[in-house]
Amino acid sequence: MSRDEINSLFRTYKDNKDPAVKNVLVGAYMDLVHSLARRFINRGEPLDDLVQVASMGLLKAIDRFDPDRNVQFTTYAVPTIVGELRRYFRDRSSAIRLPRGLRERSHMLNTAIQRFSQEKGRSPKVSEIAEITGISEEEVIEGLEGAEATTIASLDTTTETGDLSLLDVIGGEDKTLKLLDERLSLAGAMSSLDAREQNLLYLRFIEGLSQTEIADRLEISQMHVSRLLRRTLLSLRQSLTASSREPFIS
Amino acid sequence: MTGTLSDTVCVHVPPLERSSEVVRMATTAMATQAGLNLDQADDLNTAIDELFRLSISDHNKQHTFCVRYEVHPDRLEVVAEGIKANLGDESSKVGRYRRFIIEKVADRFEESSNPEGGFDILLVKFLTH
Predict the structure, then answer these.
(1) I need a labelling partner for A177 at 20 to 30 A (CA). Which of A24, A197, B12, B44 fits?
(2) Nearest 5°: phi and psi at B123?
């Protein structure tokens, strides 16, 4: 669609607020919505949710845009959509808000841990991270656990070297489910987990890989693996607890 | 267990969901003091979290969750004291799951009766160089 056609549509919409015109405008800018939503993909929320939030921002931008101001719509829409996404993270993604300094420290630690693990082939000690980053051990612990407490990792987040999501990388095979189920004799409880979650448990508890080794294999950070495992174990435990009243089948 | 004891810390928290982060912070701090790396510290956190969940579960709710950390030159020992449920109970899915996880992440794991009731559960993580 040409710029003139777009401007014409905005003028029409401004005059009659016709939902059909609005739908056409929404369709014209969905690529922008996806592009902006993807910027936030590494924060632990599923892409679908982010696109939904960004779409709300787009709708607001279309409603408020004034085509007579001689400004391109994207100039107006981008900050509106990004603002909507930021509000989403501020309001919903964490029950506890980390102070900015702690968030930055957490990011710095994540980078340092990743670099150390890659160079040395093992997980660092807190003292080693403290030495590399130049902060105290207490500050390192605070940064690590503070981030753990407020971040819910998602398997939908992308790997750190590409656009693939962890769901794609981890993969899923029925044999994993079978092996784990047999090993644990959990009588089907594993089926409550996503195939990729089962695979993550398989890597850690059957293959016996360390978090650093899993991180290396999946091209994500050790901190991310830690969060994913926590989340997966929580899901499994909840599922088991919910079904604990059922009779045990060996 | 043998070896020179260099430091002991006890943590008592109420059996509330929000206490789990306090325990986690204490565990990471003690793992650091013992010289464990992040993978090992996280393993211990996983095991202790399972014990904490056990202690706050409806059937086994305790007045407090007590955990004792002992730093040795070559290892960190963690004892969850007076846990009401027996980890050896293989009759429930949750019990088997919990035991499996703990056995996998701890280098050593022992369970003994507590004279004041319940069970003491010892987890050991050795330093690797």
Answers:
(1) B44
(2) -120, 135
pLDDT at B61 over 90: no
Model confidence at B41, pLDDT cuts 50, 70, 90, reads very high
Q: CATH number of A97-151: 3.60.15.10, 3.10.290.10, 3.30.450.90, 1.10.10.10?
A: 1.10.10.10
Q: With an 8 Å Cβ cutoff, are A226 and B42 in contact?
A: yes
Q: Is the pLDDT of residue A1 over 90?
A: no
Residues of B with CB under 8 A from a CB of A: 21, 24-25, 28-29, 31-32, 35-42, 46, 50, 53, 57, 91-94, 96-97, 100-101, 104
The full set of domain ranges for chain A reads 3-91, 97-151, 153-250
For residue A248, the chain B residues in CB contact (below 8 A) are 91-93
The sign of the dihedral angle between the CA atoms of A221, A223, A226, A228 is: negative
Provide the shortest C-alpha distance from residue A91 to chain B (in Å).
Answer: 20
Task: Measure in Å the smallest separation between the Cα of B91 and chain A Cα atoms.
Answer: 7
Q: Say whether domain A153-250 belongs to CATH 1.10.10.
A: yes
Alpha helices by DSSP H, listed for A98-221, are 100-120, 126-133, 137-150, 166-170, 174-184, 195-201, 211-218
Compute the nearest-CA separation of A123 from chain B (Å). 6
Indicate whether A131 pLDDT > 90. Answer: yes
- The confidence band for A170, taking pLDDT boundaries of 50, 70 and 90, is very low
Interchain pair B57, A241: CB under 8 A: yes
Question: What tokens appear for B43 in the block?
Answer: 């393993």
CA distance A162 to B127: 35
Residue A248 has pLDDT above 50, yes or no: no
